[in-house]
Amino acid sequence: MTEENAKRLSTKEVAELAGVHRNTIMRWLEKGWIHEPDRDWRGWRAWTSDEAISVKAFKERIVPAPHKQQQQLPLG
């Protein structure tokens, strides 16, 4: 199966895979921080799996993981 025939992902699906909100993806696109995907026959963004992986990698570069000590602090 070629990349063109492979299942394309929606912006919401890409956001879920990257662990961010759909609006975050839209903001990154607006600022030109990530590549604009092709659109399908309806005009909706249709992401390839490679593009989704790139978005996830971008998120991991700009959003540092929280420190383990911060996660273990008791609340209250």
From TrEMBL:
The lineage of its organism: Bacteria, Candidatus Eiseniibacteriota. GO terms for biological process: regulation of DNA-templated transcription. It comes from the Bacteria. InterPro entries: DNA-bd_dom_put_sf (IPR009061), MerR-type_HTH_dom (IPR000551). GO terms for molecular function: DNA binding. It holds the Pfam family MerR. Residues 10-45 form the HTH merR-type domain. This is HTH merR-type domain-containing protein.
